Amino acid sequence: MSVALHRQLGLTDDEFAQIPILIGRAPTDPELVMFSLMWSEHCSYKHSRRMLRRFPTDGPHVLQGPGENAGAVDVGDGWAIALKVESHNHPSAVEPFEGAATGVGGIVRDILALGARPIALLDSLRFGTLESARSRHLFTRAVAGIGHYGNCIGVPTVGGEVVFDDRYEDSCLVNAMCIGLVRADGMLRAAAFGTGNLLVLIGNRTGRDGIGGASVLASAELSADDEDKRPSVQVSDPFTERKLMDCCLELAADDLLLALQDLGAAGLTSAASEMAAKGGVGLDIDLDRVHLREEGMAPAEILVSESQERMLGLVSPDKLPDVLESCARWELDANVIGTVTGTGNFTARHGGEVVVDIPASALTDDAPWYEVPRTPGPAATPLALDAVPVPADLGAAWLDLLGRPNIASKRWIYQQYDHLVGANTIRRPGGDAAVIRIPGMRRALAITTDCAERHCELDPRGGGRASVFEAARNIACTGAVPYAASDCLNFANPEKASTGWRLAEAIEGMSEALEAISVPVVSGNVSLYNESPARAIYPTPVVGMIGLLEDAGASVGHAFAQPRDAIVLLGGGAARLDASEWLGAALGAPALPDLAGEAALIGVMVVAAGAGLLRSAHDVSGGGVAVTLAESALAGGIGCSVALPLGRRADETLFGESGERIVVTCRPDALPALRAIAGDVPLAVIGSVGGGTVDVQLGDATVSLDLEAARIAYEATLTEALA
Amino acid sequence: MIAVVRFPGSLDHDSAVRAVEAAGGTATYAWHADRALPAGTRAVVLPGGFSYGDHLRPGAIASRSPIMDAVRRHADAGGLVLGICNGFQVLCEAGLLPGVLRTNATTSFVCRQVELEVLDHDTPFTRDLGAGLSIPIKNHDGAWYGDPADARIVLSYGMENPLGSIASAAGVANAQGNVLGLMPHPEEAVDRLLGSTDGLGLFTALVRA
Fold first, then answer.
1. pTM
2. Which of A44, A101, A150, A383 is the S-S candidate for A588 at Cβ 3.0 to 4.6 Å?
3. Would an 8 Å CB–CB cutoff place B22 in contact with chain A?
């Protein structure tokens, strides 16, 4: 039995029925293919668009909010920083090396489309546990793909995070964030304008790779026959990407481009229709002028191919010779493939015949949207602490925790990434946030990606808040002011169960937290359908955040610095085992993050760092205060001696989490000044730096961690599991 | 004037220019397709990167670029040539330095700080360097392979040998000492803000030439 073409393409019957109403006739086959891509969840956000309006997107420094290829904020001296996070989850699950590599390529071109020079990359990864051979394979290959691409294009991969959990066994997440630098007055937009202006397609030849990537692959659940979808995964060519970067930045610097757009999901269809719809103009495209990798490609294939490393520039006719000369110098193919018209229609010709002629806005603005069911999930039940066994040997438990994959050193990963190229990396991977110099400025940027996925599973609103605050604390630990955010909302199938509610709740929680610290969301991405018949992922709203440091030379690291420095616990968070790394499961009812308390703590950090009081700062997150102290000690190569109130239970005090806590160190004589700055934010002097062990006194007992044993436990895990 | 050669896929050319400037010199770019070095060139830097995407072998295609004939003439006349990472690979492929660079013993890209020993202070590059340098490496094919008897091994990784080089070689010079290739990136170590200034001496030597 044959399935109707529109269903094969992923369109519903209702959506299919809408098309003739919009265009006044039945669509041609190429038109139908274009609609199926542009109306996919991946391109149209049809299940999430309305909810996304909740995010705070304004701020005095916002130059470009959501809606362009990337967002951008003013960082002073006439410079702007562009930022965006994007997912490449489904391609990576099908073909991890190319999927992850092209994910990097895609986000880099989003930044490039603003005319910005990409200056940093981060990767937020979620995979199944390391006990799974399949997950080890997927993870190892994804890391190799990210490294291959990022290293070869010369953009440093300065940070990121990874969580291993069985819930990602069938649906791994590969999110990439890119940061770019551009003159605030030289930023390019994607909107086409000016009848007679020319569309120039620059870069790779168009082939049959990546056809249907946005629809059949990215907007559907994964299943057992996904290997058949490998042709939907794109193939990477980072060498061409680098030339494309060099060439487009040269064209932008020489003022030769009127607009610039990258070709990503849905290829030429998406790029051109968005340019036309944003500018309220039409485009007349001659598909015979598109440089092809193979002969005999059908019009629909040319229109929706997701071949990588291609950009679409808008050029005025008098600048065309200069543009083509520059492309030739960079040994890049470039062809005029179309012109701007006044019709408002997306018109495409092939072999002299018109094969597509539809209003551009029908593909973009008229895409359907759906109110998703918001069936609340079950309320979280508080953890029965009595049911959690007390570890017999707290020291052994501490070592065990340091060696767990979600806590252990990620050196195995980041040593495979060039995190230095460009000579701007001030704080390398391994700390709370990466810090990079903004070339040509005294200021620097702190950058991080974070998500509290277990918390989101139990309470999406609280987890949404926690994800934002985790990112903000990581930024603040370097002394930087949280400045702007991007996000990637990775969720399960929105048409099922409580996913819609979780999505809305997470967005609400994220928005509340962002408002509390006055950080706008300037760009973002949604990845749905991350589930298989066996498993759905945790709600995973990844937050990418940048912070601004006034003085690049004044950033704070997480390493203990000097013997006798005072160790101070800042913030009012309570140590709880609910959803903790020590518990190792999404169980319990984590406390709802306190908006005012978290915001006040972040404010104190920024002021204290700005006053030069802090010798180190490290956020208390996975593994609790015990892991925070151990990591600072390992990074500094020096131990410490600390006393903590015993609390309800020693393991809870040591390994409990919940946010709103940061461990800082300072010279003992700086304590009065620190207290004055802290004001109402709880402050406890808990010990001092020094020695070759990390000693924590709890009531009458002392738990001790030998630094060398800790280093072995912390460093060995990933190397041994993945070698 | 220091000429920094730019190939398609060069990545560290801007950092190399900044390093020359940090050493008190001035730098300009030389384009791979040109047949002559810029007028007034006193010394040449072949920067790091992935010239031609490492297609065929790292450095193989770049070593056949038109500009390389000019670099060879400059070297033959006794001019200083510094090849960093991919530049080292290009110099070996061009036959200006002995040996080749093989895939790292880890079979992976390696990016980290390393401690180098300066074994040979009798070259124009190393004359004023101290005994040790802390400089990062970042490469996938950085294991030098050659006959130590025929090479001047100027820089060594010491006992650690993280990439699996013959004789733990990190940097190799020609017999005359005016052509030096090294896998570590001195241009990433010219600014205290980034952790080390141990790379500056190599650029000071170029500027002095």
1. 0.96
2. A383
3. no
